[in-house]
Amino acid sequence: TGYGRVVRDPKGGVKRIVEQKDATTEELEIQEVNSGIYVFDSVALFEILPNLGTENSQGEYYLTDAVETLAAQGGKVEALAFQDSGLLMGVNDRWQLAMAEKIMRQRILQRHAVNGVSLQDIDSIYIDADVEIGTSTTLEAGTHLRGATKVGQGCRIGPNTVVVDSNVDDGSIVLLSHVRQAKIGTKVKVGPFANIRPGAVLGDGSKVGNFVELKNATLGPGVAASHLAYIGDAEVGAGSNIGAGTITCNYDGDSKYRTSIGENVFVGSNSTLVAPLTIGDGAFVAAGSVITHDVPSDALALGRARQEVKEGWVPRWRKRKK
For 23-46, how does the pLDDT look when each residue is reduced to its tens digit (9 = 90+)? Predict the structure, then answer.
């Protein structure tokens, strides 16, 4: 609907193009429609244009009338038929735009599938036109790869994962997570529910687990931040472990500061690292510590109140409450 019909003569030649609003009931049944793309001999066209009229239902000048005039004058008029109607479909409202996008999405998905990418649910996977994906990679349901994203070979992305303007190298897994403007090395595991923000770099073999957020931070090879951590404006050396609940306090309300953690460092659970801060290679940060000063290599750092135990206190407390 909405397209001019191509009317042919008994020998199959193009006779004229009739716009839908001017077409008869019989002409509306014609299935060959005009896409609106023309190649004219310019001399012939400019001879015809001054003679076009507006005797039609819309009172407009129709370029399609030039086709009828040329044909009537014995000029050569040919129609190039496209078998894929979706290639030339018009977009006049948001529903037609959605339909055109669906066709383009399917073509992109087909191209990647033919090149060796496994797609587990083509109705929910979205891949932008410029995305590059290596062979033997699997995209699970709900995966969105956007912008200038590059995914290597043998990766597994999804389900319900968004990767934007990022690199994911060979053999890595990104599960139920969001990645934007980041670099993920080889054989890295991300997620579930990780938020990898701009400037994050994950070294080969590193692990970022559930509810971990990275921002402008570099993790060396083999670093593990398995759960419930925030690492922002920081460098973490190879082989270090970041315990659950650890945060780098990078913002003082006015400026951002960096945290530098060396290689093979153990940061215990629920630690607060107040930047600017440097922790040397092989150091050990005890769980529950608030660290405000630099820690030398191979040192133990504790920053917590001393525990007190008052035996027999609970029965006395309960008696007072009664």
Answer: 999 999 999 999 989 999 999 999
Note if the pTM is more than 0.85: no
pLDDT of residue 55: 87
Q: How many CB atoms lie within 10 A of CB 256?
A: 13
Amino acid, single-letter form, for residue 198: P
Residue (of 189, 196, 236) closest to 212 by Cα position: 196
pLDDT number for residue 258: 97
- pLDDT tier for residue 168 given thresholds of 50, 70 and 90: very high
Fill in the amino acid letter for 253: G
For residues 276 and 293, the answer to whether their CB atoms sit within 8 Å is no
Asked if residue 267 lies in contact with residue 261, where contact means CB atoms within 8 angstroms, the answer is yes
What are the DSSP calls for 202-232, one per residue?
E-TT-EEEEEEEEEEEEE-TT-EEEEEEEEE
134/256 Cα distance (integer angstroms): 37
Residues contacting residue 282 through CB under 8 Å, at least 6 positions apart: 262, 263, 264, 265, 297, 298
pLDDT for 90 equals 81
Contacts of 200 (CB under 8 A, 6+ apart): 182, 183, 214, 215, 216, 217, 218, 219
Which residues are part of the catalytic machinery? 227
d(CA 45, CA 41): 6
Give the amino acid at 230.
Y
The secondary structure of 83-97, three-state, reads CCHHHHCCCCCHHHH
> What does the radius of gyration of the chain's CA atoms come to, in whole angstroms?
33
Angle at 78 between CA 74 and CA 82, to 5 degrees: 165
Rounded CA separation 55/53 (Å):
6
Q: Taken in order 138, 143, 146, 149, is the CA torsion positive or negative?
A: negative
